[in-house]
Design goal:
Elements (H helix, E strand, L loop, with lengths): L1 H31 L2 H8 L1 H4 L10 H11 L5 E5 L8 E5 L5 E5 L6 E6 L4 H11 L4 H25 L20 H31 L1 H12 L22 H11 L4 E5 L8 E5 L11 E5 L6 E5 L6 H7 L1 H6 L5 H38 L8
Antiparallel strand pairs: 1-2, 1-5, 2-3, 3-4, 5-6, 6-7, 7-8
Helix pairs in contact: 1-5, 1-6, 1-12, 6-7, 7-8, 7-12, 8-10
């Protein structure tokens, strides 16, 4: 009973300390699952365009972009995933200026700062609490606390009399007094969602503390780590730098799969990276990379996700699991429901805690010290 009391207090105070943060993360995560669809509805002038006969060269898009945004530096380019989708170019940083370009005529459709749109703001809250790296770390720690809450909750939920009475933990006495009903709802809802909450929390931790989790997975599977990104040869001069379209065609010959993103070098040593998605990958962006020397166009490294070590392939599934895309629309809908679970559990847990406090205060005030004469 003493151990149970300790576990109970641990479960209670972790929930009170981190509950609001987990609630916020869950609600924003439920919306981020359908971010692309919501943004297509709210900003169709940026996200979609009429289908033309043929796309213009990507290099022409970059040349136009430099003239339109001369003070900003291109970091990423997202390739259209459907015939109607536009180019999305991210400038300066991953979460700063987003610019959209028509892939058929090169027209710059417009741009915005991520924080200035509703879904962009929601995504920043969900991924970094609007505060960059410190916010990401706070969210990572809160995900670890959620795993602790699931563990302590499972301990408290498990029937003292053994597995024979385990079915009681899934039942709700709808005709019971409201305090007992509140307890039953909290206990049963936690039991039904605990596995999903642990999965979401762990995959969330992997996205924040990715190096640590990757090392753990590689250690458990006896797999070698991913190779370090190669560097461009700064001292090697080239007579003519290949165009981006020539590099993309070369990448298609090396790895015949759709190109999803292009990462442009931000330092003299950085390579240009073409990201691809092979047919057997769950990640919507793919985890296959081709690294080019930014000066000569030489292929420095090819990472094919299909041939990656076991540890890397396992780690590559964490993002699609976390976002719900691994199973299509049904798992994305399930992810929305799981994102609402912290709200429901926090609300019922908080109400039970308030009831206990009121009961203790009432009992304390009703006691009379008989040593004091009346």
């Amino acid at each position: 009973m003493k151990l149970r009391r300790i576990i109970f207090n641990l479960h209670l105070y972790i929930g009170l300390a981190a509950g609001l943060l987990l609630l916020l993360s869950g609600l924003t995560g439920s919306m981020v699952v359908f971010r692309d669809e919501i943004e297509a509805l709210t900003h169709p002038e940026f996200m979609e365009t009429a289908v033309g006969e043929e796309r213009i060269p990507v290099q022409a898009v970059l040349d136009t972009l430099k003239c339109t945004y001369p003070q900003d530096k291109l970091l990423y380019l997202r390739m259209p995933r459907t015939p109607q989708e536009t180019y999305q170019l991210r400038m300066n940083s991953a979460h700063d200026l987003f610019v959209y370009v028509n892939p058929y005529n090169g027209e710059v459709l417009g741009g915005h700062r991520q924080k200035d749109t509703f879904m962009g703001w929601i995504a920043l809250v969900h991924t970094e609490l609007l505060s960059g790296e410190p916010g990401k770390n706070i969210l990572g720690v809160s995900a670890l606390l959620l795993i602790c809450m699931c563990g302590t909750g499972l301990f408290l939920w498990w029937p003292p009399n053994g597995i024979r009475n385990i079915s009681r933990g899934f039942k709700i006495g709808w005709t019971a007094p409201w305090k007992k009903l509140l307890f039953d709802i909290h206990r049963a809802f936690g039991a039904y969602t605990i596995i999903f909450l642990i999965i979401v929390a762990f995959t969330g931790v992997s996205l924040v503390f990715n190096k640590t989790v990757a090392e753990l997975v590689n250690s458990l599977t006896a797999s070698p780590p991913r190779p370090s990104p190669p560097s461009s040869r700064v001292d090697e001069a080239a007579d003519s730098i290949p165009s981006l379209d020539a590099l993309l065609n070369h990448a298609d010959r090396i790895l015949p799969a759709p190109t999803t993103w292009i990462t442009f070098p931000q330092t003299p040593q950085a390579p240009l990276v073409v990201r691809k998605r092979t047919p057997d990958e769950f990640n919507p962006n793919g985890r296959s990379f081709i690294y080019f020397d930014q000066y000569t166009g030489e292929v420095l490294l090819v990472e094919n996700a299909s041939n990656a070590p076991l540890g890397t392939r396992i780690f590559n599934t964490f993002y699609p699991i976390h976002t719900g895309v691994i199973g299509g629309v049904l798992t994305r809908m399930l992810q929305v429901v799981i994102g609402l679970a912290p709200l429901f559990l926090f609300a019922t847990g908080y109400m039970m805690w308030r009831n206990r406090r009121k009961t203790k205060v009432y009992k304390s005030n009703s006691k009379i010290d008989l040593s004091i004469p009346l």
